[in-house]
Amino acid sequence: MNLKELRERHKALCAEARSVMDGVGAITDGKLVAEAEARFDAIMVDADAIAKNIEREERLLAAAAATAARTSSIAEARG
Q: CA triplet 10, 12, 15: central angle to 5 degrees?
């Protein structure tokens, strides 16, 4: 997945987790509450993993941009 796709997937997972948690308040059956909380936890594990991938991609892009800027500055200085 590219960075845009990762961000979209993360956003969708967070929306799904919010939906699950919003629904928990209306549940009175303890077993169903536990199932909803387990579902929330599973979604957030996926969202956290994607967030780490987003962070890695952003760091890589920043490093590449910095390298390009340094290379450009060196080339201009040698001009």
A: 110
As a whole number of angstroms, the distance between CA 42 and CA 27 comes to 19
Query: 52: which residues sit within 8 A by CB, 6+ positions away?
Result: none
The two three-digit tokens of residue 58, written as one number: 């952003």
How far, in Å, CA of 22 to CA of 3, rounded? 28
| pLDDT, tens digit, 9 for 90 and up, residues 34-52 | 999 999 999 999 999 999 9
- Alpha-carbon Rg for the chain, nearest whole angstrom, is 21
Label residue 75 by pLDDT band (50, 70, 90): low
pTM, two decimals, is 0.80
